[in-house]
Write a structure and sequence with these properties.
The structure is a single chain. The radius of gyration is 9 Å and the shape is globular. The protein has 4 helices and no strands. It has about 55 residues and is an all-alpha fold. Helix 1 packs antiparallel against helix 2 and helix 2 runs antiparallel to helix 3. The longest helix is centred in the C-terminal third of the chain and has 13 residues.
Length: about 55
């Protein structure tokens, strides 16, 4: 998915969904799901970083 605005909005609301759309199923999705279970803010930061790079 190439629309960064939609990905950033999804990153703020549902970080794993944004990572799934950007990177697909892989190590980044697993990392983001683990971060989401630990704390929500690190998952958001990881998702925004992944979607904007």
């Amino acid at each position: 998915m190439d629309n960064k605005l939609i990905l950033i909005i999804l990153s703020l609301l549902l970080p794993p969904v944004a990572v799934l759309l950007k990177a697909g199923v892989g190590k980044h999705l697993v990392i983001n799901i683990i971060l989401c279970f630990i704390l929500f803010i690190p998952a958001v930061i990881h998702s925004i970083w992944l979607c904007t790079r």
